[in-house]
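Re: the request from the purification team.
They wanted to know what the chain is likely to look like in 3D before they choose a buffer screen. I agreed to run a prediction and write the result into the notebook, where they can find it.
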Amino acid sequence: MTASFSGLELLATAVVALDDALVVRYANPAAESLLETSARSLVGQPFLGLFAESPELRARLAEALTTHWDYSAQIAGFLRPGRDPLPLSCVVTRADAGGPLLMVELRPIEQQLRVAREERLLSEQQANRELIRNLAHEIKNPLGGLRGSAQLLERELDKPQLKEYTQVIIKEADRLQSLLDRLLTPHRAPRVAAVNIHEVLERVRSLLLAEFASGVSVRRDYDPSVPEIMGDKEQLIQAVLNVARNAAQALTSEANPAQRGGTITLQTRVVRQPTIARHRYRLALELQVIDDGPGIPEDIRERIFNPLVSGREGGSGLGLSLAQTYVQYHHGVIECDSRPGQTTFRILLPLA
């Protein structure tokens, strides 16, 4: 360690130093901790090769070198083998003459991005629900007329075989009516009481094993120190069941012939000082439903909680939307991370 870097050793902020070829020449202990990589491994590495957004970073760093200006707020994803990129905010400062040309300060912004994403999704979901409700209202009246006309027509028919067609119309109209009722009926407010979350998960596990008797195994990974939470037991069962059933259907889907089965893991943990929808809580329950299936199709990952969005043929697209509604009733959030081989639904619920 040269004298020029001695003052950086005790900083809590991650700092790396680059030479004029944008090669890492120094990383302080905070950078080692943040990037989970030793300084020995970082030194000598091309800085741009560490990030997913190398073209954007290259332009910014080249500008800093040629114009002698500092810059900040560049967001880049640090590449981690086998994991999602770590989002970081980069602040670049020109160094004193005689040493490395650029000092880069790295700050984690995963929390800020998550909060922003939660707020955006909440806003979109409220707008989607309102749109769906308005659309359902418009459909109900002509649907009732269609069913009534089919009943009147059936009374005028003499041939029994022709009544089969009117029965198809009536049954399909009833099915659509049931779907509309689920979209329009206001959900009841939670009936709050002390709930043991592991009793909820055991109920979900027994229902899953009964419905998917072959091809799906359900593994427990419970934290016995998790305290009781205040909530509506039936709503929590339904929320977790909707998520877990979605995972089981993906594991046993005909669209997944190479696997046709797998494992679902129900996991509980206690997290400290979480921020949920801009509110800071001392403790929260982290409940994860993890499966090793094919993953959620990329084109619907951002919309998976929207009503009527389904990655399964014949699916109603209401299960995850209802799960999210019940979680929000408990002042919690639900989010999803999916890639082939692992899909994780993470539910955060504040603990009193």
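For the purification team: The chain has a mean pLDDT of 80.
Please add any questions underneath this entry.
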